[in-house]
Hints:
This protein is of the alpha/beta class.
Amino acid sequence: xxxxxxxxxxxxxxxxxxxxxxxxxxxxxxxxxxxxxxxxxxxxxxxxxxxxxxxxxxxxxxxxxxxxxxxxxxxxxxxxxxxxxxxxxxxxxxxxxxxxxxxxxxxxxxxxxxxxxxxxxxxxxxxxxxxxxxxxxxxxxxxxxxxxxxxxxxxxxxxxxxxxxxxxxxxxxxxxxxxxxxxxxxxxxxxxxxxxxxxxxxxxxxxxxxxxxxxxxxxxxxxxxxxxxxxxxxxxxxxxxxxxxxxxxxxxxxxxxxxxxxx
Length: 263
């Protein structure tokens, strides 16, 4: 599908197949691994995806819910990967985005060619200083990381890279925040609402220690890898206040309802 130019990324191809939106020779394709002959017609039903990856949908929902305006602002996207967050920031009017990832060659070519995007590959945001990215902290910082806790990167993301009053919007992934026992119990999928609540509370505490105040939290409109529930949280960097009185129990209840709806 990617080779034929039907979708820009493998991730979007897999999503379209899972949604039953792909036809091969007129029949619905049910498996991504299906072999397709060169002469067989392949069709994707429905409109083309708005963003280069599902991450853009998640961030777009968060920016709308949180009322964060990125217009004309310089942003840093930590854990850019294919570039869903970067794409969303640009479509919402960001002046520029520094796209950082430990990997290489993952960012979508359209974003790689965009003059507003500075690509920093094979770069661990945990070790970055403001001087490494032209010396100025950012008005907007987004975070979508895997295999590392937000608490680990908070000193860099909040203290060193975010400007005073900057919006920090982070994707909170319980599968990378919970203890090994909780993750192993679900074979990589964290299903316990009590664990979700604990993860959110510890994330709030960890970023608060770096001077970031939690302003709002929402459950992601899309499930993560293997069906994991994820959350999006908004923080204000170097904030004078302790943040809003966010009802984490209510957010967890919304997550429970989402899982029930999708099951």
